[in-house]
Amino acid sequence: MAKTKIYHNPKCGKSRKTLALLQEKGVVSDIIEYLKTPPTEKELDEIFKKLGREPLEVMRTKETTFKELGLKTSDSRSRKEWITLMVYNPILIERPIVIHGAKAALGRPPEKVLEILQPHLIIYY
């Protein structure tokens, strides 16, 4: 079975619910508290590719830090610049992000991550 990682913030309700859901389903995950151990630029770039999203789409634009840095969603920055900003200010990374093999999902809502675990996980409704 593919290795599962969760980029987790224990202070975030959605992140806690997503982790609890994974545990409830018996999914063993590497828990990465990304505020303490931010991903590298290369890792973040790979995560966004797996998500199929651009950095700005996974950035917490309503976060105080976003405003304090004078950032705007209309800024014309390169992909690399947005990623660098997120590496140095990991609070800007939307959470939780779950990686399972070559797939990734943003846990908003938490159940969204179950989609990337199939067929390894049977879901009963």
Average residue-wise pLDDT: 93
The share of residues in helices is: 25-40%
Major sheet description: 4 strands, mixed
Q: What structural class is derived from the secondary structure elements?
A: alpha+beta
The best one-word shape is globular
Total strands:
4
Number of helices: 4
What percentage of the residues does DSSP assign to strands (E)? 5-15%
Order of helices and strands: EHEHHHEE
Using the CA coordinates, give the radius of gyration.
15 Å
Euclidean distance between termini CA atoms: 23 Å
Strand order of the largest sheet: 2-1-3-4
Low-confidence stretches: none
Q: What does the secondary structure layout of this molecule look like, with pairings?
A:
Blueprint lengths: L3 E5 L4 H12 L4 E5 L7 H11 L12 H5 L10 H10 L8 E4 L2 E4 L19
Parallel strand pairs: 1-2
Antiparallel strand pairs: 1-3, 3-4
